[in-house]
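pipeline/complex-builder :: batch 7 item 3
reading input block
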Amino acid sequence: EGVEQTYIMIKPDGVQRGLVGEIISRFERKGFKLTGLKLFQCPKELAEEHYKDLQSKPFFPKLIDYITSGPVVCMAWEGVGVVASARKLIGATNPLNAEPGTIRGDLAVQTGRNVVHGSDSPDNGKREIALWFKEGELCSWEAVQGPWLVE
Ligand code: DAT
Ligand code: MG
């Protein structure tokens, strides 16, 4: 497996419920590398672009209202197999179906308040990081733990 990038976002409910540290620490402890991080009030147009594949769904307007209802925490994470692994750490879309031990399984109860987003493919990881971060907001750095995580 190669090194990938994924876009992870703590949604407004996660921020309001004081879960920011808890959620960040799960990706950090797993061994992924944080390359971008900011608190951000998302404009409607950006939310619509981010979720454009869901435009025709009946829940789309509510989804946009939810994502823009307060600040989100935008993150870029890098690592070997990070895209699929982050989706596993996050758990199923409906928190009631998410396994215990996952973020949604442990911390949420409803699809419309599922506390966190994670990119679903390496291509979408790149697309979403480019959408949510400006040039200069991302850091490329060497983590000292590198050789202790990947041989
Ligand atoms: P995921 O966030 O697990 O990648 P998705 O990409 O299918 O799920 O949908 C994006 C978000 O849209 C999801 O986190 C919550 C909302 N959503 C999806 N399906 C929904 C539904 N049936 N009713 C209400 N909201 C839904
Ligand atoms: Mg998705």
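note: The mean pLDDT is 97.
queue -> next item
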